[in-house]
Each structure stands twice: as structure tokens, then as C-alpha cells.
């Protein structure tokens, strides 16, 4: 009991240290928040929820030529994963509507600090308690996590969800021979929670199923038992949202109902693979776009999705080549000095060093492939899916892959410290990890 209390005390202390660092970083910007077109949309949905109208938007927003966001008459219903609007509604309920500054300094700061604690807890399982502070410190030191906390966007919430997912996956990997029922159900619930923030883990199940099958020594019965329990819990968590969408919109909407235009931009004969996505870039056929723009909005979504999917199926090799090019030229590119200056980031130059550290960890992890394979597969999956869907820069859209990169980067530091300890004759603790 005393040992458990000590662990709770240490965890609490680490959380409050992390929270203090997060708040200091936020204060260093001398602004309360940043908000974009998407942020106003999330806020509008949260306000409607508090007014008793449900999780719906009552207005649309667009960014004008002067980069100022303007409210425009509603021309479509946006279905957005409910977690972030509900969290905004909680903050608004406590501090008042449109309290964007409190969203940043309370919600985002708390989630950022909690993510650092999860990095510590995951490091405990992967490397032992002696080295768990390494991923904790690297998480707090990564400037892009802190910068995007300043925005009223889903980034911080989703990064927290990914930390939670990786922690639960690490626990499952540790118990792989005889996993607890609670571990399986919690992992499935966390995947469902993540998808209700942003649905980028919806396509992960084939990868997860293959990994479980491999880790179980190709034992089909045991693998299927674990896999189906995880999927079952994911469905349980997400099904209320599915049922709500079916009743309200009379169609199956797994999480969100937009993004088809970006999917088309990323997958058509004119797709640009070395330039950051903006709506006016010439990466589409103007005649096709002019025709589709005359359709109702929902029909536009269907048409763009169909065109993108048809292109992939008709050009599978070119699709893979273009996706790889987008990964190489955009997703994995560090933040440039020009981009950092444009966004007025602080510490953005560290991004490239974090990427190099993560890359070194990836190379080292190949030596212990089974132990770290779940991190490698997640990194490969996420970078491929994001690069497949659209054309985006790495600075913002790479954030959810950075927890795994930080954990693998920590591996290199751990090995370096252990090697130095052996040279200095410092006794090494026995490694009791079983996976």
C-alpha cells in the first residue's frame, strides 16, 4: 500500500511539474489563444450543444483574402467527432461562452501535461523506471506540441489520445502471452475514443490484427480472441455516435462527413506531391471542379470521394509512388525556418533534431524488432494514411506520430546511458521486461 501511494505521489508531482511548464510556455507567447476557421466551427457546435440544440453547427465559416475568418450563412451540416466539441462545451459551461483563452490554459494545458505523464508511464514499461524520465522530458521539450496547444483545434486532444493508445498498447505487448481482459477492453475503448476525436485509427485494425497474430506465434485462436475483444470494445464506444448519425442524417457516418475534397486533391492525375496543400493550388482538373461545384454539398463530397477512390484503383503503382513522394517531401520534412517565422513559432528548429533522434531509435529498434514492432508499425501506418489521404505539411499533421518517435528516440538515449554506465563500472539493473 505504501509503495502504491508513493507511485501516485510521484505521478501527481510529475503532472504538476508538467502543467507548470505548459503554462509557462503558453504565457511566453503573450497571447491568449489562436483560432482558425476550424476552431470557430468546433466552438459553434459546442455552443449549440449548451443551448440544447445538440452537436450541430448553426453557421459556417471561411477565411477571407485578408486571412480573417468570417461567419457565413449555413450551407451544410458538418458532422465532427463529438469528443472535442464536448470538451469545449465543458470549458464554456465553467467559464462562459467563447472563453478561448481558458480552452488553451485549462483544457489544453491539462491534456498536454497528462500526455507527458503518459510518456513517463509508457517509458516505465518499455525501459524501466530508472529511464522513464527520458520520454517525459522529451515530450515536454518538443516545441510543436506546446505551440499547437495555443490553437483552439483538436491537435492537443488527439495527441493525448495517441499517448493513451500507445500506453495501452505497450501494456498489452507486455502481457501478450496472457493479457488481462481489462487490458484488452481498455485498449479497444481507447481506440474508439481516439476515433471520436479524429478518425485516423479507423483503418488500423488490419495492421493491429497482423501484429497480434505475429506476436502470438501465429496461433489463430488466441489471436482472434484478443483481436475481436478489442474490436468489440471499439464498436461499443463508437456505436452511440453511429446510431445518432443514422437517426439524424439517415446514413452511416463513422466519425465525420467531410474531407472528400482533400482526398481528391491528394489522389488525382494532377496531384502535386512536393507542395503544401492549399485550396487554390492547381492540383486538380479545373473543368472537373467547376462541374462538381454546381452540385449540392453532400453530392460534392460523394463525387470527390468517388473520383479519388477510382484514381487509386486505376493507378495502384502510381498511387503508391505518389504517396511515398508525399511522405518524403512533406510529411517527414522538418519545419522550415520560413514556416516557423510565418507561424511565429518558438523553438521550431528543434523539430529536425527530434526527427533525427526518432530515426536513430527506429534503426536501433530493428535489433529488438518484436519488442518495439508496435511502435514501428504505428509510425509506418500513420505516415502512410495521412500522406495517402491528402497533401499536407509535416509540422501540424505529423504531431500524432511524434509520441511514437519520442519513445523510439528515447531508446537511443537509454542505450547510450547504459553503455556509459558499463564503461564507468556502474552496476546495471536486471531487465525484467518480458516482451
From TrEMBL:
Superkingdom of the source species:
Bacteria
Q: Which GO terms describe its cellular component?
A: plasma membrane
Does this entry carry the keyword Repeat? no
Q: Which GO terms describe its biological process?
A: lipopolysaccharide biosynthetic process
Keyword vocabulary terms for this entry:
Cell membrane, Glycosyltransferase, Membrane, Transferase, Transmembrane, Transmembrane helix
GO MF annotations for this entry? pentosyltransferase activity
Native source species: Desulfosporosinus acidiphilus (strain DSM 22704 / JCM 16185 / SJ4)
Specify the taxonomic lineage. Bacteria, Bacillati, Bacillota, Clostridia, Eubacteriales
List the subcellular locations. Cell membrane
The regions listed as transmembrane in this protein's record are: 6-26, 78-95, 101-120, 157-173, 185-214, 226-243, 375-392, 399-417
List, for all copies, the residue spans of the domain called Glycosyltransferase RgtA/B/C/D-like.
82-243
Pfam families (alphabetical): PMT_2
> Could you tell me which InterPro entries the record lists for this protein?
LipidA_mod_glycosyltrf_83, RgtA/B/C-like
Name used for this protein in its record: Glycosyltransferase RgtA/B/C/D-like domain-containing protein
Query: How does the entry describe its membrane topology?
Result: Multi-pass membrane protein
Amino acid at each position: 500500500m505504501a509503495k502504491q501511494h508513493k507511485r501516485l505521489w510521484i505521478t501527481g508531482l510529475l503532472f504538476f511539474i508538467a502543467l507548470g511548464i505548459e503554462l509557462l510556455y503558453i504565457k511566453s507567447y503573450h497571447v491568449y489563444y489562436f483560432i482558425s476557421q476550424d476552431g470557430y466551427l468546433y466552438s459553434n457546435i459546442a455552443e449549440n450543444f449548451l443551448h440544447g440544440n445538440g452537436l450541430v453547427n448553426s453557421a459556417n465559416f471561411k477565411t477571407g483574402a485578408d486571412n480573417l475568418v468570417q461567419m457565413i450563412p449555413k450551407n451544410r451540416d458538418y458532422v465532427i467527432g463529438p469528443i472535442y466539441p464536448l470538451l469545449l462545451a465543458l470549458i464554456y459551461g465553467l467559464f462562459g461562452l467563447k472563453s478561448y483563452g481558458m480552452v488553451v490554459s485549462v483544457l489544453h494545458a491539462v491534456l498536454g501535461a497528462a500526455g507527458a505523464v503518459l510518456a513517463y508511464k509508457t517509458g516505465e514499461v518499455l525501459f524501466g523506471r530508472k529511464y522513464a524520465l527520458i520520454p517525459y522530458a522529451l515530450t515536454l521539450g518538443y516545441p510543436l506540441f506546446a505551440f499547437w496547444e495555443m490553437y483552439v483545434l483538436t491537435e492537443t486532444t488527439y495527441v493525448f489520445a495517441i499517448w493513451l493508445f500507445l500506453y495501452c498498447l505497450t501494456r498489452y505487448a507486455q502481457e501478450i502471452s496472457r493479457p488481462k481482459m481489462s487490458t484488452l477492453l481498455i485498449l479497444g475503448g481507447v481506440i474508439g475514443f481516439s476515433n471520436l476525436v479524429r478518425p485516423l485509427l479507423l483503418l488500423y485494425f488490419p495492421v493491429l490484427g497482423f501484429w497480434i497474430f505475429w506476436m502470438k506465434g501465429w496461433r489463430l485462436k488466441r489471436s482472434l480472441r484478443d483481436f475481436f475483444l478489442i474490436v468489440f470494445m471499439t464498436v461499443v464506444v463508437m456505436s452511440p455516435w453511429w446510431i445518432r448519425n443514422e437517426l439524424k442524417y439517415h446514413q452511416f457516418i463513422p466519425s465525420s462527413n467531410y474531407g472528400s475534397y482533400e482526398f481528391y486533391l491528394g489522389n488525382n492525375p494532377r496531384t502535386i506531391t512536393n507542395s503544401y496543400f492549399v485550396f487554390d493550388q492547381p492540383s486538380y482538373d479545373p473543368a472537373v471542379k467547376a462541374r462538381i461545384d454546381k452540385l449540392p454539398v453532400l453530392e460534392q463530397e460523394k463525387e470527390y470521394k468517388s473520383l479519388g477512390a477510382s484514381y487509386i484503383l486505376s493507378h495502384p503503382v502510381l498511387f503508391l509512388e505518389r504517396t511515398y513522394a508525399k511522405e518524403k517531401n512533406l510529411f517527414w520534412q522538418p519545419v522550415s525556418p520560413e514556416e516557423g517565422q510565418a507561424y511565429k513559432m518558438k523553438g521550431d528548429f528543434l523539430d529536425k533534431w527530434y526527427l533525427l533522434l526518432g530515426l536513430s531509435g527506429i534503426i536501433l529498434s530493428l535489433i529488438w524488432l518484436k519488442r518495439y514492432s508496435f511502435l514501428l508499425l504505428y509510425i509506418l501506418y500513420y505516415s502512410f494514411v495521412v500522406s495517402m489521404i491528402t497533401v499536407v505539411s509535416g509540422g501540424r499533421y505529423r504531431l500524432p506520430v511524434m509520441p511514437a518517435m519520442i519513445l523510439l528516440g528515447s531508446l537511443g538515449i537509454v542505450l547510450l546511458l547504459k553503455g556509459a554506465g558499463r564503461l564507468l563500472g556502474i552496476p546495471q539493473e536486471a531487465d525484467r521486461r518480458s516482451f
